[in-house]
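Appendix C reproduces, verbatim, an entry submitted by the partner laboratory led by Prof. M.T., so that reviewers can inspect both the input and the predicted structure.
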Amino acid sequence: MKAIFFLMGLSIVLFGSQFSVIVSKKAPFSTLSTQQVRDIYLLKRHFVGDIKIIPINLVGQDVSRSEFESVVLGMDRNRLNDYWVKQHFQGVTPPLTQASFESIKAFVQNVEGAMGYLPSSMVDANVKVIYEF
């Protein structure tokens, strides 16, 4: 498993970012750090400036979601599941999910404060990239 994540990381270094974290093109901010994105997806941070952020995750066991969890959140699936079990007992539930990258993109375009990730090749003028991995 470590070898897979190493190879994914190496491919990012060699070929550039494969995925982009996106928000609405109307969002008043243009970049976030890895730590800020991580805190938003772990629901430790809820606002960027005055904007309430709604993180959107890809549903299920998709390889892209695993890469996001590993590279950005710094956790494998088991550790992340343990995190959400603990959060559940504090009344905190995981981010919303969408079934596809297309639905993530549509949600981000239409819901103020929504944030999602998708392949960089899907980015267009309708969304704003704030982080790449």
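The two ends are 19 Å apart (CA to CA). Additional entries are available on request from the coordinating office.
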